[in-house]
């Protein structure tokens, strides 16, 4: 047998040390991200389980703006007043979404838990075994009573499937996640920042209802909250969407 040269021995040993160091840094990053999400979760009375460490890390690494795919729409109208944008009227096309229905005590709990389930689906827990990629916004369908004075507990958190997966969406391993095809829809959209809870959502619904010239053209009890930043962020970029009646 040929003797291993000191040089090759060093390289093979050196590379294994480098791999160990990389793994250790990988583990440390996972722990740091998990503990951050757990502390944020506690603020929303949500328990973030240990098995979320890998999806959180994967999502964080892929979460630069260049990697995100925006949901396509056609801008129909922009309504402005004294240079401020009041709302936009948009047309969204027919598309497939991964949806999960949630009914926690608080809205923030529902969106955090729903988002975590969708994260697992996006991060390889699907029939393709692949990372599916982030699309923005992640949306939540909320319902109110007819008078628009209070929200119901049941919400649907939904992830728009990237263009390349629209024809054949990977199947979720989680049976709570349903792939739905939504029809083409016209929405009236208004931007707002900060946390989303029952109070802030009802305030935004009432604000947009007061601004719209013909609110009667829209559904009175079904609205969408579109989130452009993850639920762990404090200063979130959100939109409230009114849906035009079919």
UniProtKB/TrEMBL annotation:
Question: What stretches pass through the bilayer?
Answer: none
Write out the GO MF terms: heme binding
Highest rank taxon of the organism? Eukaryota
Q: Where is the composition biased (Acidic residues)?
A: 17-28
Q: Where is this region: Disordered?
A: 1-28
In the record, the note on similarity to other proteins reads:
Belongs to the HEBP family.
Name the record gives this protein: HEBP2 protein
Q: Which gene encodes it?
A: Hebp2_1
């Amino acid at each position: 047998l040929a003797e291993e040269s000191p040089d090759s021995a060093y390289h093979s040993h050196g590379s294994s040390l480098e791999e160990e160091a990389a793994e250790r840094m990988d583990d440390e990053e996972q722990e740091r991200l998990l503990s951050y999400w757990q502390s944020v979760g506690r603020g929303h009375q949500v328990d973030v389980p240990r098995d979320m460490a890998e999806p959180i890390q994967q999502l964080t690494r892929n979460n630069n703006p260049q990697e995100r795919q925006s949901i396509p729409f056609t801008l129909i109208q922009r309504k402005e007043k004294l240079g401020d944008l009041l709302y936009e009227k948009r047309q969204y096309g027919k598309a497939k979404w991964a949806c999960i229905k949630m009914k926690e005590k608080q809205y923030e709990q529902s969106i955090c838990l729903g988002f975590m389930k969708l994260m697992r689906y996006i991060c390889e827990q699907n029939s393709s075994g692949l990372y599916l990629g982030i699309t923005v916004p992640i949306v939540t369908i909320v319902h109110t009573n007819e008078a628009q004075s209070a929200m119901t507990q049941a919400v649907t958190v939904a992830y728009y499937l990237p263009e390349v997966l629209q024809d054949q969406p990977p199947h979720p391993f989680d049976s709570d996640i349903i792939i739905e095809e939504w029809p083409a829809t016209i929405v009236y959209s208004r931007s707002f920042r900060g946390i989303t809870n029952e109070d802030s959502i009802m305030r935004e619904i009432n604000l947009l209802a007061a601004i719209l010239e013909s609110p009667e053209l829209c559904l009175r009890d079904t609205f969408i909250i579109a989130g452009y930043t993850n639920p762990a962020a404090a200063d979130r970029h959100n939109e409230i969407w009114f849906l035009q009646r079919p």
